Automatic annotation (TrEMBL):
It comes from the Eukaryota. The lineage of its organism: Eukaryota, Viridiplantae, Streptophyta, Embryophyta, Tracheophyta. GO terms for molecular function: SNAP receptor activity; SNARE binding. Residues 144-206 form the T-SNARE coiled-coil homology domain. This is t-SNARE coiled-coil homology domain-containing protein. It comes from Kingdonia uniflora.
């Protein structure tokens, strides 16, 4: 179809700019499909949103220029230009829906393409302008597509909530199990500490008993050695007056008798 030949210079320039933007949008969404990092996806969506706004402005300029040239163009040319504008509007809407789908996937609360500073009235006016150029079937298809996208976004949100609840339940169960395990460990440590304390006391008592027994044995040994020394001295030198009688050895007469008997032999 030789459409460009029927366009004025201004319309041809705007048509070329819109075609370039559509090509950039197609490449941009293909690139977005390959990006896995959410931050990079967000930046790419911002760039694509700016392209969509620029394309919307160009379509509006295309519509104004077409209406200014409407009286100077043939009915066939006007019909061809109007169909071309509707085709560009439909393609733009398809990219807007794709952008919304990616935005929903990232769970970002972004301002809609047509929510410009003009407010709600401007939004309704612009959307009404685009919708007035679409056929009933196109409007139905667009509505069904948007409802499907909304349903998909809701299902994804429900799945995220369900996964979050499951993870929370598993985490709570794990924490409870770990808490019980820590409590058992603390109880075991207390028992071990008590046992060690009792064992330390018992060792100290045994040490004191051993020390006492050794002292008694040493004293007994000293006494025995002293007694033996005195006995030996008395037997060797009975006339030694420096050594007193030892209790338990009997009277001096018995000791002299014992001494005489030993000398007689």
């Amino acid at each position: 179809m030789d459409s460009l030949s029927a366009l004025s210079g201004e319309l041809a320039e705007i048509d070329g700019q819109i075609t370039d933007i559509f090509r950039a949008l197609s490449n941009g969404f293909q690139k977005l499909e390959k990006i896995k990092d959410s931050n990079r996806q967000s930046r790419q969506l911002e760039e694509l949103t700016a392209k969509l706004r620029e394309c919307k402005s160009l379509i509006k300029a295309y519509d104004r220029e077409m209406k200014e040239n409407e009286n100077r163009s043939s009915p066939d040319t006007n019909r061809m230009l109007n169909e071309k504008k509707q085709s560009m509007t439909k393609e733009l809407n398809s990219y807007i829906a794709l952008k919304k789908q990616y935005t929903a996937n990232l769970d970002k609360n972004r301002v809609d393409l047509f929510d410009d500073p003009g407010g709600v009235d401007t939004y309704n006016e612009q959307n009404g302008l685009l919708a007035s150029k679409m056929s009933n079937q196109q409007l139905v298809d667009s509505g069904n597509r948007m409802m499907n996208e909304t349903d998909q976004a809701i299902e994804r949100s429900k799945k995220v909530v369900e996964d979050t609840v499951n993870v929370g339940a598993e985490t709570a169960a794990a924490l409870k199990s770990q808490t019980e395990q820590m409590r058992r460990i603390v109880n075991e440590l207390d028992s071990i500490h008590f046992s060690i304390k009792k064992a330390s006391q018992l060792v100290k008592e045994i040490g004191r008993q051993v020390a006492t027994d050794r002292c008694i044995m040493v004293l007994l040994l000293v006494v025995v050695l002293g007694v033996m020394a005195v006995v030996i001295v008395k037997l060797v030198d009975p006339k030694n007056k420096d050594i007193q009688d030892i209790p338990g050895l009997g009277p001096p007469a018995a000791r002299r008798l014992l001494w005489s008997a030993s000398n007689g032999n």
